[in-house]
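Re: duplicated header lines in exported structure tokens

Our pipeline writes sequence and tokens for each protein into one text file. With two proteins the header for the second block appears twice in some exports. Here is an export where it did not happen, for reference. First protein block:
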Amino acid sequence: MKKLFKNNILAIFLLALNAACSNDPRRPEGNTVVTPTGWVQNSNLSKGVFYALATDPTNANVVYAATSTLSVYKTTDGGTTWAPASRGLPALPVRKLLVDPINPLKIYAAVAGGDLYKTSDGAASWQPVGQGLTQQTVFSVAYHPFAPPGGVGVTSGDTLNTLEWNAVPNATAYRLYSLSCSSCTSPPALGGWPSINLTDPTKLQYSHTGLTNGTPYYYVLTALVGGEETVPSSMVAAVPAAKVNGPTPPPDGIKVTVGNNQNTVALNATSAGVTYDVYRQESPGVTTASTKISPLGGVNTTTFVDATAHNGTSYYYAVTESGAPTALSAEVAGTPSQMTALYVGTGGGGVFTSGPAGEFLGASNAGLDSTPTVPDDTPDSYDISSLVLDPSVPHAQLPTLYAGTRAGVYRSVDGGESWTANNTGLADAAVLALALGPGGILYTGTPSGVFKGTTDGSVPWRAVGAASMGSVNAIAIDPLDSNTLYAASATGGVFKSADGGGSWVQRNQGLTSTDIRSILVHPANGNLLYAGGVGVLFKSSDGGGSWMPIDLGSLDNVTNPLPNALVKAIIGPAGGSVYVGGAAGIYKSVDQGKGWTAMTTRLPIKGVQALVVDPNRPAIIYAALSEAGIYNSLDGGGSWREENGPADQPNLPSQQISKFVTSLVIDPNQPDRFYAGTQGGGVFRGIKGTEGHLSWSPVNNGLTSTGIDTLTIFPGTPSILYAGTFQSGVFKMILDGNDTWLPISGNLSDRSIFALAIHPESSSVLFAGTTQGLYQTVDGGANWSLVEGLRSADVHFVSFNPAGPSSGATLLVGSTDGVFKSTDEGAQWSHLDDGMSSPVYAILIDPQQSNIVYAGTVATGVYRRTQ
């Protein structure tokens, strides 16, 4: 069961998985649909499952909705208009959104099948956080904004010690406590220590000067957040010492940095090739008789991680050169401690904890010891669906947390250091949702409905849900009236209780689906609610009395059931079909991307680099493969045959085409002539014989590079073939029978050219996509200039829009920063930033409806946008 759980990121637990599969957005017949109330979705494309909702607590108009496809949508006008806000997020389901209560521009996203991500700019961009987060299937997150600084370290110097630490988000200042104690046999107890206020929150270092060499100094740090002082950080200590010169000086610059169940010891190198021995004990006064914790033969680097340290225990360290030992270095000490800022619940790995900077260093699962469902598997309690931090605990204490797991509810009162079960009376242990009310009341959503209990387990759990609820995916408590509850059901829609769960009524008026996965009550307005289901999002302004569907805009991820893989080519032959080719092979859609069918019969591999269609017969398609040459389909992709030669045409220096084909074009003046660009073989010309097979011969006279990245043709009389090469710029060949290439690279002669576009009315005007942006020439390649207005990005696709307002006026660019559009031949650009989180390698204007654009990405399949 665990393997199934890990491989299917649409589920947290097996029962929830079954419910999710029965309501798969690719199988609309599985959804329970009630009569619509006037609003009709203008696209049949699924926007995925809305797993999570969050809002800016200071602004009711700002709401975030997380899905299984486009990841995150955002509205800034109370839900009237929405836009994707996923730049930097992977194309994976987001299962939880958490807004920093102090700084609402900072949001955390738990990505199922991926890492934890954070934005600091209100979802304009996202970055992964969590060094050392080894379990990368994230389902829940909790955040303690009053956590102390992490990564605290101290370096010993001559009459000084230097402190460093990681930033605490929202900190306005830091406070350093220090105490010297030459007679201490253990770390001195906190209390009454002298302190220094460090008023610059951007400065994360402090030099404590004027110290007495040979005397130990102890340090802890706190942060000031929201006018309150955090609990103290881990304790560190160092003994300042003068630098010793001579032929065999002891190591100096000794530094210790505390972590979670580990300390890191570092030093300045004494000379090249030296190894070091690290000594440790649990009291001051380290000598060479202390325990040597470095490996046999010494440490050959200047950094050593003591992974055998345990939280709450103080460790003292000194270092000497190994082999012919020098005197011991100065002494440093650190007391590792539990991280208490970020808590991440994973699928199968339990709970991971972190300091404010996201420095994950291991799981914190003591007490999560339920019996696995499958022998030799991880415990069921390691599958974490929900994490809730108790806001009633004073900020100067370690936080109290609650975890909803597949084995029930667990509680930690020591910041996640240890957990105890709280399951008495919980008839269904598979917890899908967890909500904390005032007065120590907990609610759980399970496949069997809602249960009510207490935070300390003093009162057994009891079922309080309605009989018709079924599986409850989410529970929301009105922050202004704790007796008002909402439950989101996978089969029954939305239920509301006005008496703390004593009784429930269905509130489904206006819902077009009763498969609801998430629900949100705005913290400042109990009548304002949002509910997310499978492919639909709803809003209520009257406490759930009625619901209105929300139009999320025109961009749809049409990947399902396309694999999330590299797309290199998109074509649209006559008749309304769309074909995409890439790392997953060739797929065809006959309904503008609503559904896709694999077209890989007799196709030897899936690495498709280019697709072209016969201009006179749209059912005949050619595919260029990365390792298998050219293949041809005569039945619209139904089956394929090899077209690599060798040739049987007389009087031609024919040969089998090079296997790695990067690009393929057809001469519009002579549709029986093909040109293929290859890696290592240059350019080949293919001529169609009487039986429709192609014969190939190289045409490389004048080329200085046999690495071809792109080919394009200007349909003149005669036609002109252009080639973009690897590190050799641009070449052209007039197709008049001379078969000679001419360099037209100008100042791009040493550049790799990924994409070429020719002005449809002038062969002298070209655009070239490179690793350093887009370049343009207006004189046939004699001079190239960088096109302004685009972000600094690799450009992999550029094309004139054949359906632009005037011929040649509109350009589309696919790059590592998404899609850009110009309606004035490149003078000005607009960024079609619709939340695509992957670079774009291919673009297609739908030949049947020019307002529809398809974009093929590196890792997340195909997107569709209505212009």
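Second protein block, exported in the same file:
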Amino acid sequence: MTRNRQYGLVIGLIIAAGIGVANAADKPGPANRLAKESSPYLRQHAHNPVNWYPWGPEAFEKAKKENKLVFLSIGYSSCHWCHVMERESFENAEVAKILNDSFVCIKVDREERPDIDEIYMTALHVFRQSGGWPLSMFLTPEAKPIVGGTYWPPDDRVIDGETVKGFKSILKVMKDVKEKQPKELADQAEEIAKRTQARLEEGLHGRAIVTLERKLIADGIDEVIEGFDGEFGGFGRKARGFRGTKFPMPCYLELLLAEAKRTKNNDLSKALALTLGKMATGGIFDQIGGGFHRYSTERTWTVPHFEKMLYDNGQLAEIYARAYETDPKPLYARTIRTTLDFVLRELTAPEGAFYSALDADSEGEEGRFYVWTPKDLEQALPNKDELDFARQLFGVSQGLNFEKKYSILTMPESAFEHKWTDVKVAEKIEVVRKKLFDIRAKRERPFLDTKILTAWNGQMIAGFATAGRALKEPKYTQAAAKAADFVLANLRTKDGRLFRTYMTIDGKGQARLNGYLDDYAFLVHGLLALHDATNEKRWLDETKTLTDVMVKWHLDEKAGGYFYTSNDHEKLFARSKDQFDGAQPCGNSVAARNLVRLHAKTGDAKYRDLAQKSLETFAGPLKANPSAITIMLAALGEYLEAKAGTTEQKDDLSKPGGKATTSDSVVKVTSAAEKPDANGKQVVTITLAIDDGWHIYGNPVGSSELVAGSETTVKVSGKGKPKLAAVVYPKGKLTKEKVANEEIEYFIYEGKIQIKATIQRVAGDKESVELSVNFGACKSGKAGVCLKPSEVKLKVPSS
């Protein structure tokens, strides 16, 4: 159990997830409000005895009117622990009565409303809690978060001698706190809301004095490789021996793929090949039916979490296809084909668009559809020769590998590579696989989420289009085009804006919810891939149209980058500008890369300028935490490569109309040194003359909202290993600026300023030393122009 003593009101309520599975559900009761919703996840809860509301004003008005807290539960249809909590608590009459009597209960599908999910997941992180689903959160009637957690068992449990509160106890505590300490509760919610808002805007205030250069990409690669598992591929915590879950991390793989191709770096190529090979032959890949499961629960990729998500398979199909173009391994081709054939067979609507997910559970067990007992295999393959062959081929001869009674089928890479080229062996493999597939198809199937999401369809379109091009398979390119046609025809308004989701209920299709940033960015990415594969002008025309719509409704005109929600979206207590890649890249990463590619394809300078502005906006996060935003790094790489390939004339400040590009163009730096005293101390006066209309940041800069490193600094170096005994910076001019509706204050230097630096030399040091003065210049006023930072080096003699 994790605790945080910063918030003392309801500290003991944050309970760790993942303890046990309850009995099967009771018979469905009367329908609640969720029965009228389109989301399959919400409809799964339509017969709970809990009086659920969908997210909306009706629920919050009821909470205000009745002076009740809101209980918010966020999940998705293929979430295993969401099902567990439903069976244990939401179908439990006793729990439902407590919820209905004392709270207003809201259910949210995180895939339909990722904006809500991000805000309250961030609130949970403010409490220093690990995230996960179901996300359980208590809110005020104004929708401000109070406290939350993930999965909560219904009753108290004793773990390692400590009593952990169950859901019923938590509900009782929250009810008591609301009645007895309403002011303290409200104050806590206000504080959490402020911290949540600050976290969502972290790193994007002010102007980052960071050069857009390849070193940012190199630093990101170093961070990624630092967590690389050299034995089994993939990424994790080396210090922990890579214990725990291991995700495919497509965003990491995409950066490695791009940089390995550009630099011909053999180490990057090996890391990529090892990871792609181990995943494709492990249990995370469905060796019988094709397609990737969500993630591996352990280091070797053997035991997956069995849900299958469209976005994982779209991204991985694209990566394997692009890897195949560089390194045409039979394993890659087989992985691509079986993945896409799985999607066509099981995740494709009759109209051509793609469904969202397959559940992990069936027959009341996680993974039961995919795993095999010894008896299962014997019954499926009565021929002893085929049975023995299958046991060897799929790693079954090595023993049971799941819950001590099942085998998850793997295909050791060595067996695959050596045997696949033998036609007779390949035919035998296919015969055995087909028999197992046909037997497995008769089992109870996992739940299929038939929700069609614009963003995820964009990723799958990119996977099909890239694979069609790489494998020269027209059926895959045609599938991409058919899905694109459906989305453009059915998930777009008359004025060209995108919807988020589409569902067919009782034979009627319905598109709903304003599109988010990733809906535009991911769909444009897919259409660009289609243009690459077909060279058809219509796909490029659609990308330009959708990009222009995205810019109109999502661009932050002042600070740059794109808000996740549109300008006319429902106003929540916080608004995010996503800047972190996860299981999927963030919308800003993909948007920046799209803009770079659009400029390359069209030559239109507006796309280049928009790309540059985005990259400059996120330069601070790129420098501070590059491995958290690797698709933005890939975009930067393509931007720099395109820039290096141009023949643009450099600015010449000596000519009329010349334009400053680096900070030392507008700041002149000189120094005057005194002689060292008897103790080796030498005082140097450094003068910075700043051109009119420009400023540099003070030291201290005075605001945590500005990126670390923005302030003016002085450093010393030399053969005698001198040190700075003291540096006295002048007091800066206090400046106020309004950013994202919040006023920030910081200090700047203008005109002529002097810095006093005292150097401590070692006894007998007669060498010159070097002072390095680092600063970044920006245009004063509202122009918002910042130049590349400069480092000016000054030689200081010993006498």
